[in-house]
């Protein structure tokens, strides 16, 4: 038996027929197509994990594996699943790109999209039990609600000015009032923006020519106002000035605009052959919800709604009883991408900036080659 | 750029890393006129990527490199446009107002 439409330019694989719908272009034999498009999850190792396909990889089969913009446009899809304003989280499906592009996006989000963060802390007084350098480090990690695009980079010996530095002050003392203690917790809300610049210009060498209120008409503050920075007892105080500059996550994680950004491949659960009778009931009991019995046959429901069972599918697929029936696969060009912003900028804006950075990298390099 | 001929060139790209090199290598691999491509970062402390591009002769290495960079740019631009469109329609359908 041969399949004429698809088998015309294809070498026969042990004469096995493959009933496939007619397509415009010649297609790969199913076992190669599976290798090309899916990772097959085994019990202890994943198969077909490579994705860097060469253009002439399937040349012997008459199949063009090269890349073209038209083909890309046809296969590309982007779908937003979740947009959580409160937690500044965005989850979306991106289909039809290579892992290298998804990974570049992830890497840029984590380490190259700039933000503003506290870099220099000038202590006037600190009688609390937390050491200056510890507190300075904690301050650095506080995310600040300010658009870094409004500011210039401060590099090397650049002088601090209203265009590249934001100054914040913290002045708090703990005291006893009757039986109550006031200001035992120093929270991020105590960091106050100083739009006129440093109050200790001789020590900090930071002088503003004009007020920053023009650049930041809505002011600025930490994204969250209940981050615990230090604890005080009556009589202790902290008085300091914190200077924020623009930076990138690759220099220090405090400048990373995302709590994290990650992606995973879209999981698929496949029944390799029909499962009926008692076996179907048993399988449905093993994977409640993921496998349901309909008309005496096992059917797969939505794998993404049962994330917790997927690793169990992997284990079952290595067991003697189920190995011929069930398999866990992951599509190589379908990414479930999640971006968790620290709240400085909405995740969709971070993504736009990450893509701009990638485009900029390419365009800069094009000027030189 | 180190080369004895136009069809087998090693490019030395400064201040870049896997972020740019891997997508570009993917694009070059998908170019039928490229017979070999690969990159290496010789030392993690050195911010240099060495990019090797050998072609079959129909196209110079420089052209292949330029084509791949344009390819990556096109992909990013398309993702950007799609993302903006999807965000707008998602917000419209969810009926939530978002500040920019």
UniProtKB/TrEMBL annotation, chain A:
Pfam families (UniProt xref): RNA_pol_A_bac, RNA_pol_L
Chief location category: nucleus
State the source organism's domain of life: Eukaryota
| Gene Ontology molecular functions | DNA binding; DNA-directed RNA polymerase activity; protein dimerization activity
Tell me where in this chain the DNA-directed RNA polymerase RpoA/D/Rpb3-type domain is found: 89-368
**Its GO biological process terms?**
DNA-templated transcription
Question: Does the record's keyword annotation contain tRNA processing?
Answer: no
Which GO cellular component terms are attached? RNA polymerase I complex; RNA polymerase III complex
Region listing for Disordered, in residue ranges: 1-32
Cell compartments where the protein resides: Nucleus
Record's keyword terms, sorted:
DNA-directed RNA polymerase, Nucleus, Transcription
Per the record's keyword annotation, is Nucleus included, yes or no?
A: yes
Entry's family note = Belongs to the archaeal Rpo3/eukaryotic RPB3 RNA polymerase subunit family.
Name of the featured protein: DNA-directed RNA polymerases I and III subunit RPAC1
Native source species: Apatococcus fuscideae
From TrEMBL, chain B:
Q: Which domain of life is it from?
A: Eukaryota
Mind telling me which InterPro entries this protein's record contains? Answer: RBP11-like, RBP11-like_dimer, RNA_pol_Rpb11_13-16kDa_CS, RNAP_AC19, Rpo11-like
* A GO molecular function held by the record: DNA binding
Q: Which GO terms describe its cellular component?
A: RNA polymerase I complex; RNA polymerase III complex
Look up keyword Transcription and say if it applies: yes
Does the keyword Transcription belong to this entry?
Answer: yes
SUPFAM superfamilies per record = RBP11-like subunits of RNA polymerase (SSF55257)
Record key words, sorted: DNA-directed RNA polymerase, Nucleus, Transcription
Q: Which Gene3D superfamilies match?
A: RNA polymerase, RBP11-like subunit (3.30.1360.10)
Q: Where is this chain primarily localised?
A: nucleus
Residue stretches making up the DNA-directed RNA polymerase RBP11-like dimerisation domain: 9-81
Localization, per the record, is: Nucleus
The entry sums up its family as follows:
Belongs to the archaeal Rpo11/eukaryotic RPB11/RPC19 RNA polymerase subunit family.
Name of this chain's protein: DNA-directed RNA polymerase RBP11-like dimerisation domain-containing protein
Origin organism is Apatococcus lobatus
Organism lineage: Eukaryota, Viridiplantae, Chlorophyta, core chlorophytes, Trebouxiophyceae
